Batch of 2 targets.
Target 1
Amino acid sequence: MTGFISFSGNPLDRASERRGDAAWLAAQTAAGLFLPFWQNKPLVFQDRTAFLPWRSTWDGAAWVFLGLDGTQPLFAVNLPGESEPVLGSGAFQEMRACAFVLPARDTAIAGQAKALLDWHKRHGFCPNCGHATDMADGGYRRLCPSCGAEHFPRTDPVVIMLPILGDECLVGRSPRFPPLLHSAFAGFIEPGESMEDAVRRELQEEVSLKTGAVHYHASQPWPFPSSLMLGCYAQALSRDFQIDGHEIEAARWLSKDEVRARLANKIEAEMKLPATIAIAHHLIKDWANR
Ligand SMILES: [Zn+2]
């Protein structure tokens, strides 16, 4: 049983069969609610509770279609400018911090919006011929008017894996992590690689660990900027490992008892395990509790 994974469980009907219809989409904008973003940060209202303060106008900025919440059409807009727009209700907050305070459905919707808006910001020109491209299908396609090429929003698959052997799992830390954090290992899947191949290659590269069977556990959309984290367990063939010193600066085998004690904050010395918004937390916890 997997606990709830942040950014997953998006409740919207994306209406993919209708969003290519310009007349339908225009009618949706007339009744739409709009979530403003500025510099990749969603507008968030936070007092005793936090929520996304949807607005009935879109301030003239270009919008993308998120989907239907029941019958209510929802959109996101990217507000331009160097200085933070003042909108009267809420403030623009970093997406990662939002995931800790927003309700689960709002986190998932804001994550979808961020990934989509961010893709448009970075894909204004055709990679085929260099001409400026136009948005289509409410934001789910870009068209090049010069060479006719179509471009679709990207999702980049990343493997994130916990090596296990008997009653122990291996966790490691990257020099980029906050102090003391130890987590599962991760890396982008490369062209021509299966998920299982990528898991075994990354563990060989980062910690010289030989692994055999790989089992998929759960996935997580991770909008930084557009990843899909594929959570896996990798069966280690021995306890021997050696850190590479670049991507990984420390690693340790942990027993199930120690993991459970750390997750319950009964042991806090020397290391921290990942926070609940990370799928690595669920990989570690679900293994320790089975
Ligand atoms: Zn082109």
Target 2
Amino acid sequence: MAIYLCHQEPGLLVHDAEVVASRPGAVALSRSAFHPGGGGQVSDRGHITWSDASDASGGEADVTGIEIDGDTWWHLLDRDVEPSGTVPSGVVEVRVDGDHRHRVASLHTMSHVLNAFVFDEFAGALVTGAQINGDGTGRMDFDLPEVDNERVRALEAPVNDVIARGLAVRSVYVDAGDAEAVAGLVRSMSVAPPPTPDGLLRIIDIDGLDRQACGGTHLSNTAESPLIRITKVENKGRHNRRVRFVFAE
Ligand SMILES: [Zn+2]
């Protein structure tokens, strides 16, 4: 995967960009701080505003998601701005919804923490799936064939303890070939990102707790997350345990 602008500048939520292509209900931009989603994480959402050079009027639309088509990121809009009405063109102001970003990044970061405890507690059990939603709910699936579900639920306390401890979260890039040799680094069987074109893998490091390959959005410190509640642990097939979690507050 490419190194996204939102990975290089996680704090960048408002910027200008040129419209490089448009179609009914979508625009492609010269640059974008949006995270396009992937690996079970929903995309960022936000807003764009533009002016129309032909009549000095402007327009605006919510960005509801990103659709990737080759190298083009289509920013999906909540209204058909073509062919009737004004067409976004020239320079637009791009605004990423910071509350949505924070909710998703919080749940996503805490999914790493949960993953770390499951990995330790259950002899290297791997993730088989994940879904991080924008409404403050998420789930992770683990390959845990013979485990008491209450033992999984009990991990809520150590996860919340990590929030209280305020551990730093950093992203680093390592050689993908080296990374594969480190047990546990590529933790997930289904949501690990592919390397960058020059062979680097993005690693999320939670200080002293966990390192794993991931292309999503994360907090910079675990203390930024609301507390988490594990609402349910379900059996999904012979091997899978599905862990559902929400913000506790
Ligand atoms: Zn992640």
